[in-house]
Amino acid sequence: MSPVLDCRDADQLLPALRQARQAIGRGELIVMPTDTVYGVAADAFNASAVARLLAAKGRGRQSPPPVLVSGPDTMRALVAEVPEPVERLVERFWPGGLTIVLPAQPSLRWDLGETRGTVAVRMPNDRFALELLEETGPLAVSSANLTGKPAALGIDSAVQMLRDSVSVYLDGGLVETGVASTIIDATGLVGRDRRPVTVLRDGAVSRQGLRDVLGDLLEPDPVDPEESDAA
């Protein structure tokens, strides 16, 4: 059975960080708490580790994982360009529950799956997660669950689903929000053919919150079918 280490225990915190960092360095998987849901993580620059992550969840390469970063500077190193509206989103919602898809830096040598030249990045609002990211660098992280099952809000459900496919489990207690991050596609803000920012998944950051920052740069809200049928 893979070890479960309680990050809330001061005596276990440093050993937990060390074991998690070592597991990542060996190309293995860990489960870690974040501010949204528990995540299963791998070294973003280790293609075999990322493939192991997808296999553990029962996913294929068509579902590449997002990348968690310790701050905006790391994001800027991973993407080709950060448009000014995205800078405003980062200032408003990071660290927090907003994942942003942008064109990836073409010089990076990594393989997250079928990304079509993009990367989804987020800075989590969780002290332990940020400490770990400072030590490991960017991590490919997806929700700690089997595909089709609810995301893990506590360590026990993550262990039950992922078992020995994960080398180290980091227990941070029950997740406070339990709401997955909002994912937006901001690739349309890069290049000449400007397109609105689109919401790929509704989550912790509301569309109204996004619109407060982006204004008309955000796609129109979905039309309620009942409203569209009204006279």
Automatic annotation (TrEMBL):
* Subcellular localization(s) per the UniProt record: Cytoplasm
Q: What PROSITE patterns does this protein's entry cite? A: YRDC
EC annotation from Swiss-Prot or TrEMBL: 2.7.7.87
Q: Give the main localization category.
A: cytoplasm
Catalysed reactions, semicolon-separated: L-threonine + hydrogencarbonate + ATP = L-threonylcarbamoyladenylate + diphosphate + H2O
The secretion signal range is: none
Name all YrdC-like domain ranges.
14-205
Which Pfam families does the annotation name? Sua5_yciO_yrdC (PF01300)
Q: Which GO terms describe its molecular function?
A: L-threonylcarbamoyladenylate synthase
Q: Which SUPFAM superfamilies match?
A: YrdC/RibB (SSF55821)
Keywords in alphabetical order, please: ATP-binding, Cytoplasm, Nucleotide-binding, Nucleotidyltransferase, Transferase, tRNA processing
Record-stated family:
Belongs to the SUA5 family.
Name of protein: L-threonylcarbamoyladenylate synthase
